[in-house]
Structures are given as C-alpha cells and as structure tokens.
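Human: I would love a firmer grasp of how sequence relates to backbone shape in proteins. Take your time, and here it is.
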Amino acid sequence: EQVDAAFAQVEEAHGPVEVLVANAGITHDTLLLRMSEEQFERVIDTNLTGPFNVIRTAFDALAESGDGRIVVIASAHALVASPFKAGYVSAKHGVLGLVKTLALEGAEQGVLATAVCPGYVRTPLVERQIADQAAATGPAMPASSAVWRGGRAPATAASGPVRRCRSAAGAGASPLSRAGLVSGRSARAGRAAATRSARTSG
C-alpha cells in the first residue's frame, strides 16, 4: 500500500514513470550463527523484496512507455561474498537474479533492466559496518573487513572507490546508454569491474 501510494503521488505530480531506480539498502553485520531470523528477514525484506515490490508496481507504466528502464543498485556483494554479511550477500545475489529474470520477461515490452554493482563507497551505511563487525569479531578485525585506511576501503577483489561504470556495452558506458546490449547484465564499478565472471559465477 505504501508503494502504491508513493507511485500515485509521483504520477500525479510528474506523469507516468519511465525510469525506475531501486536503491534500497540496509545491512546487519554479524556472524551467520549469531544472526537472528528477524535480522535476516529485515535485510532480505529491504534489499530484495523492496526492489521486487517497486518493480512490480512500476512495470505496467514502463511497458506502456515502450522504452522503460529499470536500474537496480546491487553491490559487489552480488558477485562475491564476505564474512559477517549472510543477509546482505544473500539479498544482493537475489537482486542480480531478479534483474536477469526481469530482463527476459520485459524484453518484448521494451522494458530493459540493469543491475549496478559498485564496490565500497564511503556512506553512513558502510561506516556503520565498522562498529558492527567489531562487535561480531572482537577487537582483532580481519584484513578483509571494511576498515577504512587513508580514506579508502580495503583492497579486496570486489572493493574500491567508484570511478566509472563498465558494462557489456563497453568501457565507460552507463547502464542506460546502448541499453539493448546491457539489459539483464550487471554493470560493475571500481575494482568490482575487474572481477572476472569465472570467479563470480554461481
């Protein structure tokens, strides 16, 4: 009901939706065995069910436009896993599957879908992970954790500040440019762009 009301307000003020960007995101960092079912469900509800709900609500208007675009902000964790992030990694892998399915189902109606998979970006959500992971592991935090050194995230295969997107349409292409070539693909950003598909499949 909240999603329907929000879309009704947008359409009344600006007309039919032609582009949808789904960017919901929360996390709860802790060891999998310490994570409660309620904590896991909250992360899944926001990060995966949230995009599902807004996409489903917007789809008819996007299809009627004949040129609808959906961009879902996933994560490098849609491609690889990290410790202490069972809920987040599960949700973001699910987002990638959602986008791939949507690209297949929306193709005939001209609705193109892309997932953007940025590496670590210094946001309040990422900064809160430091305290969460410290609570989960104690004072000695592993080298792979999200501790900022010199203003940058740790240099893991899936991290790095966002510089520009790379996608199947070519280096530097945005998810909306040459969209027919990237529908259903994940546009990786920063060092996530260097992650080979052979290492991230599955």
Q: What stands out?
A: Residues 141-179, 191-202 have pLDDT under 50 and may be disordered.
